[in-house]
Amino acid sequence: MIMPRLPKTRYFSTLFPKTICLSPGTTFVLPVTFRPLDRIRYEDYIEFNQIEFGKVFRIPLTAELPQFKIVFENDLNIGSCAVNENISKKIKIQNLRFSKIKSH
């Protein structure tokens, strides 16, 4: 038997906690809703109490903003172009940093 506790902050919410009975090999999905108010990093946790063993474990909840690091070619040579003419060239642009979903 496992008893979850609600996250402490109002930014993360989940269903009203009820005692969960997990048999070996079964799964339980606990939906978590995130409602941010500002563009900042949010942290919280859901605490689970293993009733039979008297142990408590926490699952961290983290919401991060996307982070970007845009890189492209250092030398961009488009070539010559006459007045009132068009020229185009494909360039490679990469985002080397992005938010990753972490599981603990």
Summarize the structure.
With 104 residues, this protein is mostly beta strands.
Structural class: mainly beta
Query: Strand arrangement, largest sheet?
Result: 1-4-5
The largest sheet, given as strand count, sense and whether it forms a barrel, is:
3 strands, antiparallel
Oligomer: single chain
Taking pLDDT < 50 over at least 5 consecutive residues as the criterion, the unreliable ranges are none
- Overall strand count: 7
Number of helices: 0
Radius of gyration (Å): 24 Å
Strand content: 25-35%
Would you tell me the overall average pLDDT? 84
**First CA to last CA: what distance?**
22 Å
Which overall shape is indicated by the principal axes computed on the Cα atoms?
elongated
Q: Order of SSEs, N→C?
A: EEEEEEE
Percentage of helical residues? under 10%
